[in-house]
Specification:
With 329 residues, the chain is of the alpha/beta class. The chain has one domain: Alpha/Beta hydrolase fold, catalytic domain (Rossmann fold). The chain has eleven helices and ten strands. Helix 3 packs across helix 11 and helix 4 crosses helix 5. The structure holds 2-acetamido-2-deoxy-beta-D-glucopyranose (9 copies). The site of one 2-acetamido-2-deoxy-beta-D-glucopyranose has 5 residues, from strand 1. One 2-acetamido-2-deoxy-beta-D-glucopyranose binds next to loops.
């Protein structure tokens, strides 16, 4: 799903403010700017960003890394980043989880350190098979998945099709259908860009979910495609090709979602303007026994905007015991 959302996210910010805030996320704090518009930059992985390539026979080269504590108590965790991004977007989660368990991160094919070469179009099913290829390569039989946006969609694709490999999925900011149509046009949920969780009184408190304009804005930062990719000259083409995917995938309805049998939390920010709330509601309704979590005062980039709360939710979910499909507390 959409990772960048310039009009909505940067509408009230001056470019100079962004430029001065690029290197240190803490400098991005500005009490006049609501948290769901901060969109802090990615940061370093605790293993010094060391990683390797898995070079597939198709010519596609996948960058991945694994670090953390080996643990018999904890299932390894696969962290999947957002569209056009890279693994460093997940640094708050990876570094925290690595204190207690093994984490695995991959830069999606064509994105980040994985060069855009030897394939043309982007597909969630390819991301899914790539993740399995990395797990096979590492001899890891089963993982829990924490995914953001495109990574969250890939997490669901994994759970649908590789149930024996996936223990549970924490999906933040996923959408089931590219066309953003369904369902619940009368969803009594607020997805306000103004900051006030006000309702539309004309419809008796029912507010239509909204979504922001699509598009990309480059931000000067260390962790972007141009800085990381072995083929930085292909980054713009990559972004365009990823947008084409966003415009056509996924196309999942209740039947596809019903294939997900593992524990799932459908998570989203209460001010996510990249993915409408009704998309999250639909998935939570369609996936058997899914839980839904709406995080307060954050947007699509919740994992960067409020890592403390986000990490708490992730760890709580990962540690939760499940008896069959039903959680017990
Ligand atoms: C905080 O943001 C407001 C609104 O954009 C701006 O007017 C103000 O100058 C910013 N303050 C700082 C310290 O950057
Ligand atoms: C992948 O691309 C490189 C560079 O263009 C080329 O040399 C190589 O033959 C390609 N590999 C495959 C399997 O297509
Ligand atoms: C694997 O892919 C990386 C990134 O494209 C490349 O630098 C490296 O040479 C490749 N390794 C082999 C053995 O082809
Ligand atoms: C322990 O985990 C690391 C990754 O953190 C991995 O490279 C290593 O192979 C693991 N060792 C065993 C014995 O599983
Ligand atoms: C996973 O399942 C969905 C729903 O049936 C399907 O659309 C998709 O192609 C499958 N993905 C893979 C990688 O097999
Ligand atoms: C995975 O297992 C195979 C067969 O036991 C072994 O040859 C290979 O080195 C293992 N790979 C890793 C990354 O541990
Ligand atoms: C709002 O509620 C009132 C009272 O139940 C009802 O008469 C009216 O038709 C409702 N308006 C809409 C737009 O649903
Ligand atoms: C990516 O880079 C390679 C090598 O520079 C080039 O041959 C290829 O055409 C580029 N692909 C795209 C889609 O820009
Ligand atoms: C949106 O996409 C879904 C899945 O492909 C499809 O069933 C539905 O008819 C589409 N809705 C519109 C309005 O195009």
């Amino acid at each position: 799903m959409k990772y960048f959302n310039p009009v909505i996210l940067f509408g009230s910010l001056l470019l100079t403010e962004l430029a001065s805030a690029t290197r240190l996320p803490s400098q991005f704090f500005n009490a006049s700017v609501p948290r769901w518009k901060w969109w802090p930059n990615p940061g370093p992985l605790a293993n010094g960003n060391k990683g390797q390539y898995l070079n597939l026979s198709s010519g596609v080269d996948l960058w991945y890394t694994t670090f953390g504590k080996n643990s018999s108590r904890h299932t390894p965790v696969l962290l999947l980043h957002g569209g056009t991004g890279n693994s460093n977007q997940m640094y708050h989660q990876a570094n925290k989880l690595a204190e207690t368990r093994q984490v695995i991160l991959q830069d999606t094919r064509g994105e980040g350190r994985s060069p855009y070469i030897n394939f043309t179009t982007f597909h969630y099913d390819d991301f899914t098979r790539d993740a399995i290829a990395i797990l096979d390569h590492l001899n890891i039989s089963r993982v829990a998945v924490v995914g953001w946006s495109d990574g969250a969609i890939t997490g669901l694709d994994l759970a649908m099709n590789y149930s024996s490999r996936i223990e549970r999925v924490f999906t933040h900011g996923a959408n089931p259908q590219a066309n953003m149509s369904i369902p619940g046009l009368n969803d009594p949920i607020i997805n306000s860009d103004t900051g006030s969780l006000d309702s539309d009184f004309a419809t008796n408190g029912t507010t239509y979910s909204v979504h922001g304009k699509r598009g990309l804005r480059k931000r000067e930062q260390v962790y972007d495609c141009e800085s990381l990719s072995p083929l930085p000259g292909n980054c713009t083409a990559m972004e365009e090709a990823v947008i084409n995917m966003w415009n056509s995938e996924p196309t999942w309805g209740p039947e596809a979602m019903a294939k997900v049998k593992c524990p799932v939390w459908i998570v989203d920010g209460d001010h996510d303007t990249s993915v409408e709330r009704n998309q999250a509601d639909a998935m939570a309704a369609w996936i058997p026994f899914a839980g839904q979590l709406i995080l307060p005062h954050v947007g699509h980039a919740a994992l960067l905007e409020d890592p403390k709360f986000f990490n708490f939710a992730v760890e709580y979910f990962l540690d939760m015991k499940f008896d069959g499909v039903l959680p017990y507390y």
